[in-house]
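Subject: sequence -> structure tokens, single chain

Hey, anyone have a minute? Need the predicted structure for the following. Not urgent.
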Amino acid sequence: MKDLKESIRLQKYIADQGVCSRRQAEALIEEGRVQVNGQLAHLGQKILPGEDRVHVRGRNLGTSPQRTVVLAMNKPKGYISSNSDPHHDRTVFDLVPPPWNRERLFCAGRLDKDSDGLLILTNDGELAQRLQHPSNEIIKRYKVTLTKPFQEAHIKIMLNGVMVDGERLKAEKIVQIKKGPLGDRTLEIHLGHGKKREIRRMVEALGYYVKRLQRFQIGDLRMRGISSGRVRELSKKEVELLFS
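Reply:
Had a minute. Here:
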């Protein structure tokens, strides 16, 4: 009889193999795209690594975790944060150079197609789960340029929350940058969560449109020394900054 003390949840095992995040692994299991020992897997199932055979989307997984890779990318506009999308030709993974393009990487968080800036790519499902889980509320900082001058009175409204399509969107902090030619149109916005196109939807509800949206910091990790479209592998210390 198998020792349950040595078993681990199937979604954790899939994430440890660098296939995707735990949340994405759970979706694959629910969609019937995961098999264990030739049988369809079910959510919450446990396995014994090295004994049970796991197939994801028809591909057999290994039995030991691969080397952890964490990359910081300066994402340019025009690329989507996805491994594949039938509606878009260009993904951020098209920009990943050797030797990292041989790794099974995925995005730990997203930036929409029209935004640019700091994006984390990794093969570590646990790390991706920690970065994306709402309970951690890791602060992400954005520089936002609007198409018209911003009214300072709207800061309080955005901090309290704006209802859009039945969903409450809010910022953690807003700083109006008044220096430079576009100073009255430029904001620094901090988010502690990551709802889809949250900043764009929030400012549009107040009558503004975004000219440029750039993420420049996640946790205490700032985007430095990375040209647009390039990546840099993070050290263990830099990875820790993501959670500071």
